[in-house]
């Protein structure tokens, strides 16, 4: 249909409204600043590595700063609030993952070394010292055991690599998150009128879609790591049984049943905390409950550590408190208890400082350790640190600290003090 001006209406899509100059400038400069922020994050990580810290450990600082920036941008651009939520859900303890991967690698090295040594021990027996017909049978059993050790060592190596792969994936995501947060902050600065805000919200929606894809890639990396753990365990158990370990699958089944308790506790905790984070995604706390912690773990001597904690917060988020309790149980008997209380507070726009106390009792309900903790953090700049001091039953004092910044980090550092070897079994009443 024609219109009085000679055009047509209704049959053709009208061209979108051209992007305002201020928005275009914010988009362009924000993208450049985002790339620069990501590059700066990588540079800071390299500095942390050069100073004896962890490269991947800087991810924790970058994610804290990125989440805070995205949440601030969300005051004007609603999609940025969901970006901040995804950032919060994708934050992991990369320093802990790296330490765990290192432990698996050390275990693998020791297993491979043991396999070499046990083979060499048999070879070192002179032929003339053992000429009976049972020597070949013995050597065959030793060879089977060597293959069991090597197979288990290979599995430990694969687990270590997969865990470290997840840590690197989290680091890569943190670099992306920092760049995206800076971009969103630039858009929020340009959203000064209704028209400009509408256009900036559209760009923020695109940023949310991109963040969703990046988060999916991160989940895929974690899924691959889990597949290596599960599939590798099955393959190793099969290899062990083929080399004479008759109860390998039974042991794996028992381990799976035992581990399921801890897995169930962690899954329940994570689902609950995800719901809490979603409810509080706007920055203002919608509920006094800020998080929960659930634990059900068993150590090497069949002692279970069970318990949990709750974290509460003020509506503005300026104050936070945490209470936790754990019990050690073996064969139905209480072997120890632990009670911890923490608190922190400060201006939301600056950071927070606080401290806490922790008490540990032995199986006879005698006070075993007394600890105190002092710490401070500023998510805006990705800085956090804490100091913990402990007095044991003999009133001996020990201390450690944690520090995490974009260019420097330490985890459970005891100020260079060499860790003492544990006392022998006869001094531990084992």
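^ structure tokens above, recovered residues below v
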């Amino acid at each position: 249909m024609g219109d009085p001006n000679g055009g047509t209406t209704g049959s053709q899509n009208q061209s979108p409204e051209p992007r305002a100059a201020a928005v275009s400038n914010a988009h362009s400069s924000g993208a450049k600043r985002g790339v620069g922020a990501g590059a700066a994050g990588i540079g800071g990580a390299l500095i942390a590595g050069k100073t004896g810290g962890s490269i991947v450990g800087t991810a924790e600082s970058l994610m804290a700063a990125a989440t805070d920036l995205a949440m601030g941008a969300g005051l004007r651009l609603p999609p940025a609030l969901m970006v901040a939520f995804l950032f919060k859900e994708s934050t992991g303890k990369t320093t802990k993952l790296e330490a765990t991967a290192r432990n698996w690698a050390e275990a693998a090295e020791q297993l491979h070394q043991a396999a070499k040594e046990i083979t060499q021990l048999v070879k070192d027996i002179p032929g003339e010292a053992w000429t009976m017909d049972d020597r070949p049978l013995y050597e065959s059993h030793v060879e089977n055991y060597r293959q069991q050790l090597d197979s288990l060592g290979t599995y430990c190596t694969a687990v270590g690599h997969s865990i470290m792969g997840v840590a690197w994936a989290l680091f890569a995501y943190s670099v992306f998150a920092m760049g995206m947060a800076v971009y969103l902050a630039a858009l929020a600065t340009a959203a000064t009128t209704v028209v400009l805000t509408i256009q900036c919200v559209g760009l923020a929606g695109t940023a949310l879609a991109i963040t969703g894809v990046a988060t999916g890639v991160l989940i895929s990396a974690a899924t691959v790591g889990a597949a290596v753990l599960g599939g590798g365990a099955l393959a190793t158990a099969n290899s062990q049984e083929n080399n004479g370990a008759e109860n390998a699958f039974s042991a794996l089944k028992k381990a799976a049943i035992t581990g399921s308790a801890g897995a169930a506790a962690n899954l329940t905790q994570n689902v609950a905390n995800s719901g809490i984070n979603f409810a509080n995604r706007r920055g203002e706390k919608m509920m006094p409950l800020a998080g929960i912690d659930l634990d059900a773990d068993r150590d090497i001597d069949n002692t279970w550590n069970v318990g949990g904690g709750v974290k509460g917060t003020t509506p503005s988020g300026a104050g936070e408190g945490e209470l936790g309790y754990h019990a050690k149980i073996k064969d139905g008997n209480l072997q120890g208890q632990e009670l911890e209380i923490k608190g922190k507070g400060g201006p939301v726009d600056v950071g927070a400082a606080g401290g806490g106390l922790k008490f540990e009792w032995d199986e006879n309900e005698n006070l075993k350790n007394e600890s105190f903790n002092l710490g401070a953090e500023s998510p805006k700049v990705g800085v956090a640190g804490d100091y913990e001091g402990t007095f044991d039953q003999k009133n001996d004092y020990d201390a450690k600290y944690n520090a995490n910044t974009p260019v420097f980090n330490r985890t459970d550092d005891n100020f260079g003090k060499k860790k003492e070897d544990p006392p022998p079994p006869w001094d531990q009443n084992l």
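Residues 1-15, 424-430 have pLDDT under 50 and may be disordered.
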